[in-house]
Here is the input.
Amino acid sequence: MNDYLGDVAALARKDLALELRARDTLPAMVLFVLSTLVVFHFALPRDAGDEAAYGLLWVAIVFTALLGLSRAWVPESRDGAIDALVLATRDRSAIWVAKTLAALAFLAVAELVALPAFALLFAPLDAAAVAGAALASIGLCVVGSLAAALASAGRGREVVLPLLVLPLSIPLVVGGVGASISPQAGDYLLFLGVYDAVFAILSWASFEYVITE
Amino acid sequence: MIRAEGIEKRFGGRAVVRGLSFAVSRGEVMLVTGANGSGKTTLLRLVAGLTTPTRGTLAVEVDRSRLGYLAHEPLLYRELTALENLDLFGRLYHVPERRERVGMLLERFGIWDARSERVSSLSRGMVQRLALCRALLHEPELLVLDEPFTALDEEGAELLDAELVSLASAATLVISTHDPDRVTPLSTSRLALA
Here is the structure.
């Protein structure tokens, strides 16, 4: 177990180091989510109400996550580094866990900017909405990292990734919006937690087959 | 250590490797030769476990963690330094006394002075030397080398010659090359792909 966690830590650290050095994902995500919220601010009719605004927040978050995920496996695709990882890791699921953690870290930073911006431009966010954002972000990164690995293996990564992730993200959007506006926010948070657990187990177990033929 | 019986590898409708059978015993050095497109790289990827045969059986009796693989591509992160790349793979392979081993390999292949440079800024020959360090880092029992002399200058090629001589007595080697004369003295068997 310690070896496994050590592998995850080494791989996640590598992803963070690559991003700190190249800075080609996180700034793009932050700028995208901010500019999307600003555009929505002017696009939304004044009498649209807060419910519509919460829906648009989730559109912004899902597409920001997609932007990050579309670049998640680029360093591995270049120069065949993924082959070296596949050979070097004892349990290949460690590669997916590390990639998910790195994707989650990038999305969390984008949301640290996006959520206050949303509160400023649209409507306040309560603790349930923030918890919903956290749980849905975990779900997005869990399924998104696996889908991005699948998409990176073939041609047309930019087309395949949204086709895989968007249908799987619908329950997360429903849960995220529900946690923000429903009086029964707890039910939605529970739903998001179950989604995260189920898809984390499925993704963890299937990564070996995704990354090899 | 390696036993292949009637292996075939197809990509779509095209057979890249067809009905190949061979065996490599522990300690052998098998040389794989053939023209461009004859399937050498695909065969080596099959042996390394990076792809699976479409037909036939291929048994490689070595744990993946004891296999070293040098490919056409360097299999390195270009935005990490030479040292960071080897440190990462040393951690993943759980190499004992990792730092000493990494330092020793960088010294041996003449890239110690470039250890803090990003791979993207190294010459192709230096990258090939670093890729060799990565392949040898964990002292593999089975070493699969795809065109190992590619991009190496004469000094680098001589370093590799010396390395292969010492490895031939300690590991099983499968080497593909367009320059068989360079490796023939070491080889115990040869597989010529048509």
Chain A touches chain B at residues 3, 6-7, 10-11, 14, 17-18, 21-22, 75, 78-81, 83-90, 212-213 (CB under 8 Å).
